[in-house]
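Researcher: I'd like a structural prediction for the single chain below. Treat it as a standalone chain; there are no partners to consider.
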Amino acid sequence: MPKNFRLQAEIVNGKCPTCNLFTVLVSIERDFFRCMSCGSDLEQHVNGKITYLPVITSPKTGKPYVREWLEEDGTS
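Model: Treating it as a single chain, here is the predicted structure.
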């Protein structure tokens, strides 16, 4: 491992849509975070407000994608 290797993680508070808890989220990449309560991977979206959506791997391509997450009242 190179001696100049540097790792920076961003730690934020947010509401996880998977476990529905206000918890600590740790960045695993620039826009991807992991919930410290349930361990789900989330993608951060900024559009007037910051939201976190679950990341799901496509069974066909194996690449991660974000599906639309429905709120408790059934709206997106």
